[in-house]
Every structure is written in C-alpha cells, then in structure tokens.
C-alpha cells in the first residue's frame, strides 16, 4: 500500500510539473541552468513525462516545493475532481491532509 501511494505521488508530481513550475514563480531558464539541461531537452522531458527520478529529485529541491505544497495540493485536488481523473476518495485524502 505504501509503495503504491509513493508511486501515485511520483506520477502526480511528474504529470503536474508545469503547474508546479508555474506556482514556484521561477523562470524556466534558471531551472534549466540548475538542471544542466538544454531548453529543448527539458521541454521534451516535461511534456513526455520522461524526467528521471534524479532529475525530479533535483527539481523538487530547486523549486522549493515545500514552500508551495499546500497551494499545489488544493489546485491538484480541484483539478482532479473537475476532470474526473481523480477518484472521489483520492481527492478526499488530499482535502483531509490539508485540513490537518
């Protein structure tokens, strides 16, 4: 159960990386530079979900995701509910996490 939850969280992170970058307020050229990646490569990897675990780990650090986590969780929960991508119990877990 814990492994599946970890994988689901990782997928959500990768699938919503553009939203996370937007919420961070950081410029793409800075992020690309910090990752040591060309603009085209970073674009391709973001759009195709091809970022490696190491790249995602570095991105999390660069973007300081802890700072924007609550706002992101709210937006992801809303997005998931509205689009039907997220099951009701999944969005309920997010909302309960935010309430605690």
Report low-confidence residues grouped into runs of 5 or more: none
Largest sheet: none
Radius of gyration: 14 Å
Mean pLDDT over all positions: 80
The end-to-end span amounts to: 21 Å
Q: N-to-C SSE series?
A: HHHHHHH
Compute the number of helices.
Answer: 7
Proportion of beta-strand residues: under 5%
Q: List how many beta strands DSSP finds.
A: 0
Helicity range: over 70%
Number of domains: 1
Shape: globular
Structural class: mainly alpha
Note down, in words, how this protein is organized.
α6 runs antiparallel to α7. The longest helix has 19 residues, at 65-83. Helix content is 82%, strand content 0%. With 100 residues, it is mainly α. It has one domain (2-99).
Main features:
100 residues; 7 helices; globular; mainly alpha; single chain
Please render the helix and strand layout as text.
Blueprint: H1 2-15, H2 17-24, H3 28-35, H4 39-48, H5 53-63, H6 65-83, H7 88-99
Write a brief caption for the model:
The chain is mainly α and 100 residues long. The chain has helices spanning 2-15, 17-24, 28-35, 39-48, 53-63, 65-83, 88-99.
């Amino acid at each position: 159960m814990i492994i599946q939850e970890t994988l689901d969280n990782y997928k959500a992170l990768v699938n919503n990386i553009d939203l996370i970058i937007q919420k961070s307020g950081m410029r793409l050229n800075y992020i690309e530079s910090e990752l040591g990646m060309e603009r085209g490569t970073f674009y391709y990897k973001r759009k195709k979900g091809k970022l490696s675990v190491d790249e995602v780990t570095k991105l999390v650090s660069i973007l300081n995701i802890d700072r924007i986590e609550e706002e992101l969780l709210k937006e992801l929960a809303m997005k998931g509910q509205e689009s039907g991508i997220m099951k009701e119990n999944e969005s309920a877990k997010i909302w309960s996490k935010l309430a605690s």
